[in-house]
Amino acid sequence: MSELTTIARPYAKAAFELAVEKGSVEAWNEMLFFAGQVASDEQVSALLSSMPTASEQTDILLKVCAEQLNEQGQNLIKLMAENKRLAAIPAVADIFADFKAEYDKEIDVDVVSATELVAEQQDKLVAALEKRFARKVKLNCSIDEAVVSGLVIKAGDTVIDGSVRGKLDRLAVSLQS
């Protein structure tokens, strides 16, 4: 996986710089997301690996993605095929999405609670997290009754465990030592 990331980073960076220059970051994000989904499909992946030449691989992928890719997107696919890097397309899409989030000053935050958060609670949480991270926050809420009460918040590498389950676990570890 890290090898694909290393391979994909220059392609994603070049695509992102072009997208910023042309003012089409959102369009590029959508194109790469679609191409990444197509390339990661098991049937398409098997079909592409059975094709002996880059030209044939490019033709197949471009036929599937023709409606969603503009000329520059098609050129990126052709370049990656010539360099035998089509397997890295999903990684390119992921890295591009990370660049876009950084550019947009956005952060995805996963929130796990024991019960569903009402809109007012979500609004207060978004306001507090935007202040803490100095970015626009997009909440992804889920429910896990094992949390018991409170919240577990994950944003990138940051984890804030304010759940009763987390406190009980820390207390158990403390008592055992």
Automatic annotation (TrEMBL):
Pfam families: OSCP (PF00213). It is a peripheral membrane protein. It comes from the Bacteria. The keyword Secreted does not apply. Keywords: ATP synthesis, Cell membrane, CF(1), Hydrogen ion transport, Ion transport, Membrane, Transport. InterPro entries: ATP_synth_OSCP/delta_N_sf (IPR026015), ATPase_OSCP/d_CS (IPR020781), ATPase_OSCP/dsu (IPR000711). It is found in: Cell membrane; Membrane. F(1)F(0) ATP synthase produces ATP from ADP in the presence of a proton or sodium gradient. F-type ATPases consist of two structural domains, F(1) containing the extramembraneous catalytic core and F(0) containing the membrane proton channel, linked together by a central stalk and a peripheral stalk. During catalysis, ATP synthesis in the catalytic domain of F(1) is coupled via a rotary mechanism of the central stalk subunits to proton translocation. This protein is part of the stalk that links CF(0) to CF(1). It either transmits conformational changes from CF(0) to CF(1) or is implicated in proton conduction. Belongs to the ATPase delta chain family. HAMAP family: ATP_synth_delta_bact. NCBIfam families: ATP_synt_delta, PRK05758.2-2, PRK05758.2-5. This is ATP synthase subunit delta. It comes from Pseudoalteromonas holothuriae.
